[in-house]
Amino acid sequence: MSDDELHALLAAPNNPLLTWNAPLSEDHARSLVDACRVPDGGRVADLGCGWGELLLRIVEGAPGSTGDGVDSDPVAVGRGRRLARERGLEGRVAFHESSADAWTRTGYDLAVCIGAVHAWPGSTREALRALRATVKPGGHVLFGDGFWTIPPTPAALRGLGAEEDELVGSLEDLVRAAVEAGFALLRTTVADQREWDVFESNGRAGWGERWALDHPGHPLHGAARATAARHRTGYLGGYRGYLGFAYLVLGV
After folding, report:
1. How much is the pTM?
2. Which residue among 29, 138, 155, 188 sits deepest, i.e. has the most Cβ atoms within 10 Å of its Cβ?
3. What backbone phi and psi angles, to 5 degrees, belong to 250?
């Protein structure tokens, strides 16, 4: 058994514990869908959509609307297509295996990008500029990105496997970047600590442990537990409390 097999096994699109690949509760998600105000018959694009759970819910809530989910991960795209079929949305939501920065269609009523700024070489600011160009005048953008709640320690950076300048900075810095990109800031909410803890517990740490308990004789049992422990230590002993995540509803 290889490292690639373990990575695939524990990857987010194959993880049944994750509803979405971000720190987000059901109540918080509903409030974001409501705040986006997609008109009946509107068009939605989710760039870096993963398996598109939020996109599916947005389209479900706006009669006659359609959506394009764009992601470069074929496993995530496959999961999105299965979910669309299961919910009777196959004719309204299309999933495209493509990098978000290569998507050129415009004129959408809403563009969504949650935790996917890495798809653009310039990261946060370039992503914001691209999203603004994707929506028509009067449209909205739902943007989710990380920020530092306080300056990170070396342990926080090691746990996250990141450099400090990979994020735009503080929450204020993130909001300023959105305003400088030409957006009107309509709403700002952040993931609370419970959302973070549930997300991390259901991610590789919790999923690895659960999978290992269910497969005690599997050749990857020990590696799965070691991976789970590494991720748990990286979060609890590293970036917990340092890394924040904001959801911005932006107007054009």
Report:
1. 0.94
2. 29
3. -120, 145
pLDDT tens by residue, 21-64: 999 999 999 999 999 989 999 999 999 999 999 999 999 999 99
Four-point Cα dihedral 141, 145, 150, 152, nearest 10:
-160
* Number of independent structural domains in the chain: 1
Q: Give 9's pLDDT tier (boundaries 50, 70, 90).
A: confident
Question: Could you tell me if residue 218 is inside a domain?
Answer: no
Coil/strand/helix, residue 72:
coil
**Cα(15)–Cα(129) distance, integer angstroms:** 32
Question: Given the DSSP bridges, would you call strands 243-251 and 135-148 parallel, antiparallel or unpaired?
Answer: antiparallel
- Tokens for 184, please give them: 């009107």
120 within some domain: yes
The residue type at 231: H
- Whether residue 18 lies inside any domain: the answer is no
Within a domain: 227: no
